[in-house]
């Protein structure tokens, strides 16, 4: 459920919008989220989605979902469908039907013809290599193409023949005639059309020339009457071109572009090209692998839309560097799940405990709420049997200082159950504990023992009633903060795949309360004293052994490991 307070933080874009509304420049806010359908959306896109759709929501405006689909060789319907699903899952609705830049290809072509007729565009025969040589550098001006002074008639003829498929791919381009000496390289006669015979997911084989992103994007904004075109800071140098195009074509609307800093999440990557490499080289199981920073991966990991919206609010919107530690994301998810996820007990590393004075009919069970603060979530009975299992880590024969769990001769309370005392330890041939013999204080069910204090509480499951589960334990995908920025001794970048964390995924068999047998996919739970887990949205099947993915621990353990 969306709430305007979820987007209530003030930032410079909100100040601009409020000034525009107050001055009457705009009477209604209209934003857009314009992904390229060449991969799955990631955490950086989640920030942009929350910004664009959130602003429209806060100011009772509209937000379009528009696919900037100008590169057919890298785009396909799978990516289109995944993007729609991700936006909806995050809780947002776009205005009307989804838009496609390809819907405007006819208009874009007509505008290009108009630019040629005005002497502001020309067909060029330079190769890409030659174009780079002519372009110049940041300190040296470029030089004009030898084809720059073709006549309007010749350019119109060549451009139409490009459209009709008379020339090979890459042999000609259409360029704007701006200024080869401009200090902004984007203004040095940028290419706005290239020849590329590729099947397009939306227009099929109608076109063999495709417009470039910079040319397409601003015109699409104008056609849709976008009021505030929001993009990340790397597009700041593209803004003069954005304005130049709109100033030189016959179109009434002229949106304004505003830039904000992109999100950099440490111990992760957000380059679609590199994420695609991870998938294609089988470093992960797919775009929705729970270790991936994609929205679909985070969803499968058990993250919630509410948690991601909270994260987007916390990282904020500014023009300053937006480098965020993974713990901030995990903290937002943990905070949201604390209130929304019901509890159950599961033992991931079982140690057998025999209750020596267990008496059938006397040793009783208790009921417990699924959430201590939400009785509406219901309750369940927690049965006990002579054999139970606890975590190996909850027993220490030689306990460290401050130990509040079980030790030989010591007492501990079973969560939602009795106080027990460890009387004997049975070990294997290597001296490792394999079974504990413990006695129950039958007078401690639901009350404290008389004459002594028992501080420790541990979770457990009944051997007779527990259900086996498969658990996938996930950790951070990379071992360094910025895996794609590390240079070797030779000064060259080290492949980011060298820093993949070999411990990022482990699969174990565990035991849990029998309630897990009836859970649907994407059912989020807190395993008491361990962390938050979710039934896998793909592999978990009711009637089969439950499959859980670890979402996040109850506390941030990474800093302790890194120290």
From TrEMBL:
<feature type="binding site">
    <location>
        <begin position="42"/>
        <end position="48"/>
    </location>
    <ligand>
        <name>ATP</name>
    </ligand>
</feature>
<dbReference type="InterPro" id="IPR020059">
    <property type="entry name" value="Glu/Gln-tRNA-synth_Ib_codon-bd"/>
</dbReference>
<dbReference type="GO" id="GO:0005524">
    <property type="term" value="F:ATP binding"/>
</dbReference>
<dbReference type="Pfam" id="PF20974">
    <property type="entry name" value="tRNA-synt_1c_C2"/>
</dbReference>
<feature type="domain" description="tRNA synthetases class I (E and Q) anti-codon binding">
    <location>
        <begin position="457"/>
        <end position="536"/>
    </location>
</feature>
<feature type="binding site">
    <location>
        <begin position="36"/>
        <end position="38"/>
    </location>
    <ligand>
        <name>ATP</name>
    </ligand>
</feature>
<dbReference type="InterPro" id="IPR022861">
    <property type="entry name" value="Gln_tRNA_ligase_bac"/>
</dbReference>
<feature type="binding site">
    <location>
        <position position="213"/>
    </location>
    <ligand>
        <name>L-glutamine</name>
    </ligand>
</feature>
<feature type="binding site">
    <location>
        <begin position="262"/>
        <end position="263"/>
    </location>
    <ligand>
        <name>ATP</name>
    </ligand>
</feature>
<feature type="binding site">
    <location>
        <position position="68"/>
    </location>
    <ligand>
        <name>L-glutamine</name>
    </ligand>
</feature>
<keyword id="KW-0067">ATP-binding</keyword>
<keyword id="KW-0436">Ligase</keyword>
<dbReference type="GO" id="GO:0006424">
    <property type="term" value="P:glutamyl-tRNA aminoacylation"/>
</dbReference>
<dbReference type="GO" id="GO:0005829">
    <property type="term" value="C:cytosol"/>
</dbReference>
<keyword id="KW-0963">Cytoplasm</keyword>
<dbReference type="InterPro" id="IPR020056">
    <property type="entry name" value="Rbsml_bL25/Gln-tRNA_synth_N"/>
</dbReference>
<protein>
    <recommendedName>
        <fullName>Glutamine--tRNA ligase</fullName>
        <ecNumber>6.1.1.18</ecNumber>
    </recommendedName>
</protein>
<keyword id="KW-0648">Protein biosynthesis</keyword>
<dbReference type="InterPro" id="IPR000924">
    <property type="entry name" value="Glu/Gln-tRNA-synth"/>
</dbReference>
<feature type="short sequence motif" description="'HIGH' region">
    <location>
        <begin position="35"/>
        <end position="45"/>
    </location>
</feature>
<comment type="subunit">
    <text>Monomer.</text>
</comment>
<keyword id="KW-0547">Nucleotide-binding</keyword>
<dbReference type="InterPro" id="IPR050132">
    <property type="entry name" value="Gln/Glu-tRNA_Ligase"/>
</dbReference>
<dbReference type="InterPro" id="IPR014729">
    <property type="entry name" value="Rossmann-like_a/b/a_fold"/>
</dbReference>
<dbReference type="InterPro" id="IPR011035">
    <property type="entry name" value="Ribosomal_bL25/Gln-tRNA_synth"/>
</dbReference>
<feature type="short sequence motif" description="'KMSKS' region">
    <location>
        <begin position="269"/>
        <end position="273"/>
    </location>
</feature>
<feature type="binding site">
    <location>
        <position position="232"/>
    </location>
    <ligand>
        <name>ATP</name>
    </ligand>
</feature>
<dbReference type="InterPro" id="IPR049437">
    <property type="entry name" value="tRNA-synt_1c_C2"/>
</dbReference>
<dbReference type="InterPro" id="IPR020061">
    <property type="entry name" value="Glu_tRNA_lig_a-bdl"/>
</dbReference>
<dbReference type="Pfam" id="PF00749">
    <property type="entry name" value="tRNA-synt_1c"/>
</dbReference>
<dbReference type="GO" id="GO:0004819">
    <property type="term" value="F:glutamine-tRNA ligase activity"/>
</dbReference>
<comment type="similarity">
    <text>Belongs to the class-I aminoacyl-tRNA synthetase family.</text>
</comment>
<feature type="domain" description="Glutamyl/glutaminyl-tRNA synthetase class Ib anti-codon binding">
    <location>
        <begin position="341"/>
        <end position="441"/>
    </location>
</feature>
<dbReference type="InterPro" id="IPR020058">
    <property type="entry name" value="Glu/Gln-tRNA-synth_Ib_cat-dom"/>
</dbReference>
<feature type="domain" description="Glutamyl/glutaminyl-tRNA synthetase class Ib catalytic">
    <location>
        <begin position="28"/>
        <end position="337"/>
    </location>
</feature>
<dbReference type="Pfam" id="PF03950">
    <property type="entry name" value="tRNA-synt_1c_C"/>
</dbReference>
<dbReference type="InterPro" id="IPR004514">
    <property type="entry name" value="Gln-tRNA-synth"/>
</dbReference>
<keyword id="KW-0030">Aminoacyl-tRNA synthetase</keyword>
<dbReference type="GO" id="GO:0006425">
    <property type="term" value="P:glutaminyl-tRNA aminoacylation"/>
</dbReference>
């Amino acid at each position: 459920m969306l709430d305007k307070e979820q987007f209530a933080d003030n930032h410079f874009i909100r100040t601009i919008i409020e000034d525009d509304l107050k001055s009457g420049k705009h009477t209604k806010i209209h934003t857009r989220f314009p992904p390229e359908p060449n991969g799955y959306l990631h955490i950086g896109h989640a920030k942009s989605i929350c910004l664009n759709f959130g602003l429209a929501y806060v100011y009772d405006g509209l937000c379009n979902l528009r696919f900037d689909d100008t590169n057919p060789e890298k785009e396909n319907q799978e990516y289109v469908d995944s993007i729609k699903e991700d936006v909806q899952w995050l809780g947002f609705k776009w205005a009307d039907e989804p838009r496609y830049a390809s819907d405007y290809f006819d208009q874009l072509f007509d505008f290009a013809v108009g630019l040629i007729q005005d002497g502001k565009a020309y067909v060029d025969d330079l190769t890409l290599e030659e174009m780079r040589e002519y372009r110049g550098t940041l300190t040296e001006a470029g030089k004009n193409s030898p084809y720059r002074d073709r006549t309007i008639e010749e350019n119109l003829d060549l451009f139409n023949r490009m459209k009709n498929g008379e020339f090979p791919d890459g042999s000609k381009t259409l360029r704007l005639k701006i200024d080869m000496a401009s200090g902004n390289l984007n203004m040095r006669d940028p290419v706005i059309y290239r020849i590329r015979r590729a099947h397009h997911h939306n227009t099929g084989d109608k076109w063999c020339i495709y417009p470039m992103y910079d040319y397409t994007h601003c015109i699409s904004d104008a056609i849709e009457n976008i009021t505030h075109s929001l993009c990340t800071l790397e597009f700041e140098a593209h803004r003069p071109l954005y304005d130049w195009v709109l100033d030189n074509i016959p179109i009434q609307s002229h949106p304004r572009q505003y830039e904000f800093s992109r999100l950099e999440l440490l111990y992760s990557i957000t380059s679609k090209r590199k994420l695609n490499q991870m998938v294609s080289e089988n470093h992960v199981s797919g775009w929705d692998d729970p270790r991936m920073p994609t929205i679909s991966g985070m969803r499968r990991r058990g993250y919630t839309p509410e948690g991601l919206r909270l994260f987007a609010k916390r990282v904020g919107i500014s023009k300053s560097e937006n480098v965020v530690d993974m713990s901030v994301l995990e903290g937002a998810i943990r905070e949201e799940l604390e209130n929304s996820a019901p509890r159950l007990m599961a033992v991931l590393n079982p140690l057998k405990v025999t209750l020596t004075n267990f008496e059938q009919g006397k040793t009783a069970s208790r009921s417990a709420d699924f959430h201590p603060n939400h009785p509406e979530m219901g309750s369940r009975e927690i049965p006990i049997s002579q054999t139970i299992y606890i975590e190996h880590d909850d027993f220490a024969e030689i306990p460290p200082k401050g130990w509040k769990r079980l030790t030989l001769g010591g007492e501990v309370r079973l969560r939602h159950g009795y106080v027990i005392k460890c009387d004997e330890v049975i070990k294997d041939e290597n001296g490792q504990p394999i079974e504990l013999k413990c006695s129950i204080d039958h007078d401690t069910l639901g009350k404290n023992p008389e004459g002594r204090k028992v501080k420790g509480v541990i979770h457990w499951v009944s051997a007779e009633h527990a259900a086996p589960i498969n658990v996938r334990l996930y950790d951070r995908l990379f071992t360094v903060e910025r895996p794609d920025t590390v240079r070797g001794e030779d000064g060259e970048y080290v492949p980011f795949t060298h820093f993949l964390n070999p411990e990022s995924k482990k699969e174990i068999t565990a035991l849990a309360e029998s309630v897990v047998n009836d859970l649907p996919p994407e059912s989020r739970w807190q395993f008491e004293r361990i962390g938050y887990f979710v039934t896998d949205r793909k592999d978990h099947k009711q009637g089969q052994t439950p499959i859980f993915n670890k979402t996040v621990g109850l506390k941030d353990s990474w800093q302790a490991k890194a120290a």
